[in-house]
Amino acid sequence: MAAVDDLRFDPWDPAFVADPYPAYAELRERGRVIRYEPTDQWLVPHHADVSALLRDRRLGRTYQHRFTHEDFGRTAPPEEHEPFHTLNDHGMLDLEPPDHTRIRRLVSKAFTPRTVERLKPYVERLAGELVDGLVAAGGGDLLTDVAEPLPVAVIAEMLGIPASERAPLRPWSADICGMYELSPSQETARRAVRASVEFSEYLLELIAARRKEPGDDLISGLIAAHDEGDRLTEQEMISTAVLLLNAGHEATVNATVNGWWALFRNPDQLAALRADHFLVSSAVEELMRYDTPLQLFERWVLDEIEIDGTVIPRGAEIAMLFGSANHDPAVFTAPDRLDLTRKENPHISFSAGIHYCIGAPLARIELAASMGALLEKAPTLRLAAEPERKPNFVIRGLEGLSVEVG
């Protein structure tokens, strides 16, 4: 076990957030598991360990299916945070079997390869329209003009949320996702609670409307499954819809702007991509690896485990560093080099095991569609101003990405 007192790993340092990868290299050199006192976590920086632990059933996203807070040596969250935790704790990302299995099996019907493939023309058409608007304006903010509207519209369409009611979705999502950062502030918690209440109230009304007039959307499908038996509670329906919206666009939005920012900083790779659009598929994978949109994923230790001779007790929390794992030289040749032709690319940006991202195939279609449309319709796309990083560490993105066309 190594200490981190003299390392550069500091999730609250803007310089670290701007470029955490050198600090990750130091962590990997120090060992396979590192105790980090500021967050009371065990950091795991190596690809092999992260990959294995994501599949290890001695770890869990929650512990409440087996232990009380007191039994587990943890303090219950503040009562005023209850609306957020009610919403969050009933989504399948934060559940373990058998509840996780039951909900995922139902939701997976909406994400079969055939279903996702049927969405491809809609996604490509919408991406083309968004890029047309960017080109007509001579440029703009790639984040707000293309990266955000595309996945939000796609997942809202799947859920059956009318276009006229979609404006609050992104702000609600951003406020809720603020709670996934390390040690969120009281203000962050307050915003997350408010968004949780407002989003839940909206979905309750939408569910009621779909009960009266079902459609062919996912919410209608969840209602039908719920009404056939006790497979889904109303809270599980609400939490599932919120999770699909949040997870269904956050990673795609950030992967889009992180990816184009990486391309602008690596003009040789951008030139190669412009010369050969068939590279889009491998480019999507490499850009997800190179600047990972989700840097850290947490798990609770349900039963004592050992990593490289270090015993990690039940009740501890493990922080798996996806960004570090995706730059591990034991797995990736020249990991700090952007290589859009990389053949072997077992990145873990979509996680692994039972919590592997159910929307990964759709995210890949969305990323490829926006990239393809930008390459085709905006071949002269260029950076207009140096972007600012969001201060967040866990969910890695930009405040905006100003571009010019023509």
From TrEMBL:
Specify the domain of life of the species encoding this protein. Bacteria
Q: Which GO molecular function annotations are given, in alphabetical order?
A: heme binding; iron ion binding; monooxygenase activity; oxidoreductase activity, acting on paired donors, with incorporation or reduction of molecular oxygen
UniProt keyword annotations, A-Z = Heme, Iron, Metal-binding, Monooxygenase, Oxidoreductase
Instruction: Tell me which species this is from.
Output: Streptomyces phaeoluteigriseus
Q: Give the similarity note.
A: Belongs to the cytochrome P450 family.
What is this protein called in UniProt? Answer: Cytochrome
Tell me the Gene3D superfamilies matching this sequence.
Cytochrome P450
| InterPro entries attached to this UniProt entry | Cyt_P450, Cyt_P450_B, Cyt_P450_CS, Cyt_P450_sf
